[in-house]
Design a protein that fits this description.
By secondary structure, the protein is of the alpha+beta class. It is built from four helices and ten strands. Strands 1-6-8-2 form a four-stranded mixed beta sheet, with helices on both faces. Strands 7-5-9-10 form a four-stranded antiparallel beta sheet, with no helix packed on it. Strands 3-4 form a two-stranded antiparallel ribbon. β9 and β10 form a beta hairpin.
Amino acid sequence: MPTIRVQTEDFDAGAEIAQIRAGNPRVGAVASFVGTCRDTNDGDAVAAMTLEHYPGMTEKALAQIVDEAIARWRVLDVTVVHRVGELKPGDQIVLVVVSGAHRGEAFAACEFLMDYLKTRAPFWKKEQTPAGARWVEARASDDEAAARWVAGTKDAA
């Protein structure tokens, strides 16, 4: 059963990984990704970033992304934790953990989930810079990464 949480509190990646493995002898691989807040973006210093979301809609969108990954790869379990609120450079933002019988499936599903979270999850980011606050625009490189999955150039392992 996938775990999906949107929260202001920090998370413990080690504890989340242990939880996804707990008591399941079929797990042969665990792939994970932790995204953190950087201190610069587009050449400017970033003092803080605020992530906003629309409660209910965000969790539903995350569940759809997770369901798509589960339908595409033979994975055993998935955990997605995404933080909202004000974050400082170095703070953890997002955690994706995927367990599977084999590494290829776990790696592919984890990469897919991050690519889709960056482009399809309804989060809005505002950075605090020396010049003032600014909304973070989507990056073309994120759209290109997600488009590879649609185009079929990233297949299940």
